[in-house]
Structures are given as structure tokens and as C-alpha cells.
Structure to design on (172 residues):
């Protein structure tokens, strides 16, 4: 009888011990809808539900967005409806541009170079009459809507830093 009771208690403790890591695991891992490609309607819904001041459809695969703080950027879908592949788009490009005065070009080019050295997760370019900055993400392997929102937020943080660096460069 004592052996049976000891075995029962041991099995009960073992079950309790196994349940604890499983509970911790389930608190760490949750199920989310994974997108291997994204449709324009899905991206539109995501952007419109993200708390931006405005989201305007500029074309079939491009949206112009304004944040609550007044920062404007665009979101363009890329690698769309590739023949023989899944319907939808496999890339999303977040981008924005700033006007550039000719007298500031040298200072701004140095500032953009500094930004690119600090932030390798996106890029900024000095073009003829403007500064262009972008961040590109893919749906390779699948992404969640939370991941796309996080990428948009990362882009916005990068743009905030780029804006600071540009203003420091031209001392305005």
C-alpha cells in the first residue's frame, strides 16, 4: 500500500512539474494569423486600425499616411501577384522624403551618411532636390499584422532620428 501511495504521489508531482513549464511556454507562445503574402485590402485595414490621423489610398498598391503628430509617409506594396505564386504582395516599402535646398546639400549629405552608419535597418539617400528614406520588409516565412505594425513603428522611430540629424546638420 505504501508503495502504491508513494508511486501515486511521485506521479502526481511529476505531472505537476511537467505542467509548470508547459504553462510558462503557453504564456510565452501564442497563436497568431500568419500572412505569407498580403492583399491591399488587408494592408488598408491594418493601416486604418493603427491610430494614424489619416490613411489615403494613393494607388492600387500604395497608401499615403499621416501620423497624429503630422509626419507624412507612404506605404507601397511590392512583388505583387507574381505568376505561379500566391495571390498578394510579398514586400512592403515604408518611405518618406524631405525637400533639400541646394545650399544645404553638402551638410545634408554628411548627415545622411551618419544616419546610414547608425541605422543599417533602413536607408536614406540624397537625391537631386530631396532626401529620401525607406525601410523594406518582406513576408518571407510569414508575418503577423503585429509584426507589420512593429516595422511601421520602427520606420517612424528611424524617421524621427533622421529628422533630428538633418535639423542638426542645417542648424534650424
Amino acid at each position: 500500500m505504501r508503495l502504491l501511495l508513494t508511486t501515486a504521489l511521485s506521479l502526481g508531482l511529476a505531472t505537476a512539474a511537467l505542467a509548470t513549464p508547459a504553462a510558462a511556454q503557453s504564456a510565452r507562445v501564442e497563436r497568431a494569423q500568419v500572412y505569407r503574402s498580403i492583399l491591399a485590402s488587408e494592408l488598408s485595414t491594418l493601416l486604418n486600425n493603427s491610430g494614424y490621423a489619416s490613411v489615403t489610398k494613393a494607388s492600387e498598391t500604395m497608401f499615403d499616411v499621416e501620423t497624429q503628430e503630422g509626419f507624412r509617409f507612404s506605404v507601397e506594396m511590392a512583388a505583387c501577384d507574381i505568376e505561379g505564386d500566391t495571390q498578394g504582395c510579398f514586400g512592403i516599402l515604408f518611405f518618406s522624403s524631405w525637400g533639400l535646398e541646394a545650399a544645404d546639400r553638402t551638410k545634408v549629405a554628411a548627415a545622411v551618411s551618419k544616419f546610414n552608419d547608425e541605422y543599417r535597418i533602413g536607408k536614406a539617400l540624397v537625391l537631386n532636390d530631396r532626401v529620401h528614406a525607406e525601410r523594406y520588409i518582406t513576408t518571407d516565412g510569414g508575418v503577423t499584422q503585429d509584426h507589420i505594425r512593429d516595422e511601421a513603428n520602427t520606420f517612424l522611430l528611424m524617421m524621427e532620428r533622421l529628422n533630428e540629424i538633418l535639423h542638426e546638420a542645417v542648424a534650424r
User: Anything to note?
Assistant: Residues 1-30 form one domain. Residues 1-18 have pLDDT under 50 and may be disordered. The longest strand covers residues 89-99.
